[in-house]
Amino acid sequence: MEFWFSELHTPNFTIKVKVKRTLEVRKTPYQELAVLETLDFGRMLVLDGIIQTTEADEFIYHEMITHVPMFSHPSPETVLVIGAGDGGVVREVLRHPSVRKVDHVEIDEAVTEAARRWLPTISAALDDPRVTQHFTDGVEWVRRAARTRGGVYDVILVDSTDPLGPAVGLFGPVFYGNCRKALRPGGVLTVQSESPWFTRRAMLRSFHGIRRAFPLARLYTAHVPTYSTFTWSFTIGTDGVDPLTAAVPDPLPFETRYYTPALHRAAFVLPAFVERLVAAPEPDDLKAELDAEVASEKGV
Known about the structure:
By secondary structure, the chain is an alpha/beta fold. It has 2 domains: about 5-55, Spermidine synthase, tetramerisation domain (Spermidine Synthase, Chain: A, domain 2), CATH 2.30.140; about 60-300, Vaccinia Virus protein VP39 (Rossmann fold). It has 10 helices and 12 strands. It has helices at about 60-70, 90-95, 110-120, 120-125, 140-145, 175-180, 200-215, 260-265, 270-280, 285-300, and strands at about 5-10, 15-25, 30-40, 40-45, 50-55, 80-85, 100-105, 130-135, 155-160, 185-190, 215-225, 230-240. The chain has a 7-stranded mixed sheet. Strand 4 (about 40-45) and strand 5 (about 50-55) form a beta hairpin. Helix 5 crosses helix 6 and helix 6 crosses helix 7 (about 200-215). The relative contact order is 0.13.
């Protein structure tokens, strides 16, 4: 009997992956977690029915969410990673020799436990002495860090799940505003900002939220085979160096499988329909939603 995992996006579109065996399925305090061994993509982490990462293509996502912002900062020493319970973002951050300290904040400890057990090539860097793990709410962590005068971090990377359940608070202007306050001058924030197809509103929510909080916001993309419609977006915000003009070393100081200095710049070249989406003013309904979130935070 064949076993297929299906990730449903709409009643008319699904991604199907053939599974060799189930390694783990459990309910955590926050979500349903599964680790499946697939024929084409190796081991695959699934949360609430949505593919998070696979052994075969994880390098694409992890390199692009990490190296674009890290090389857009002249010398990142202190980094905050929110989410990323599998450890892949932390692994890529630590490849930068300037990094002295990484705070890794993940709300669901079970995700990291599963990654340590089944995905050691992704999670091994979590044992590096420069990494301190905190199993707590990233929204509240950033809120506290924002109170430190002058900022705490050089780079903040938000590798969250989709904007459902515990991740909802990571997709709004209040959170992004606190991220800016938690950054030192010249700091860089990058978030995964969903797909321009089936999760377009979430992408625009991230982009406009960051544009409200930072003097410069840019959206860039990568192509991940196991993600919705292959095209995935990231949004970067900074009050420092424009990532388009960042002095990316060429050759790089370490080997990569997807990211290159040329791709760093090319990733910001958007398809025409995506370029029009981010160039347009905030849609009226989204503007009202973001305004209401900010007003609620201020107690208005």
